Amino acid sequence: MPKYINWRNFWIFWLGGLAVFLFNVATIGPLMTDVAPTGILDHQSAGTAERVDAIQQSWAVAGQMNYAKWSMITDLIFIGLYSIGGILGGRLIWQEARSPSLKKLGLFMVLIYFLFGLFDYIETLSQITQLLQNEGSDLLAGIAAMARPPKILTWIIGTVGMIIALVWRSRERRA
Would you list the DSSP string of 87-140? Predict the structure, then answer.
């Protein structure tokens, strides 16, 4: 097993990802406008160039375009940290588990965190491209909106699944 696959790195990446996520949630306020009452979440689900343009225009009027760029960059950082952490954790659980069911859960976590990272990167890269071009795109807005539901689903499954796997692993080690 490569040296970088260890519990220390899992905790650094996974908890680091959660910390960046919480930071992003706590700092969403400046992107909330009348046009985008849920801020960046409205941009993620916009679905059309027209809607993206309206949201980005509301951010420009509020003087928040640079803030939006940095918010999306920190989202890219979150995705990387959290996905890598989840994949490391899943692999470690799979390798160390005694029970076949926990081994399967570990492998499932590897898959779920890979899919989460894939969907969230597709969504966020579609968003940031439109932001940097200062123009909405029906194609990119549609891609971002389509990637959002599976991203949310894999985030929920991955987060809950990892907590279950960690508790299960802890109990298995004590037994």
Answer: HHHHHHHHHH-SSHHHHHHHHHHHHHHHHHHHHHHHHHHHHHHHHHHTS--HHH
CA distance 114 to 118: 6
78-82 mean pLDDT: 98
Inter-residue contact 20 to 77 (CB < 8 Å): yes
Is residue 109 packed enough to be buried (19+ CB in 10 Å), middle (13-18) or exposed (0-12)? buried
Whole-model pTM: value is 0.93
CA distance linking residue 68 with residue 142, whole number of Å: 19
Distance CA 80, CA 166 (A): 21
What is the rounded radius of gyration, in angstroms, for the C-alpha atoms of the chain? Answer: 18
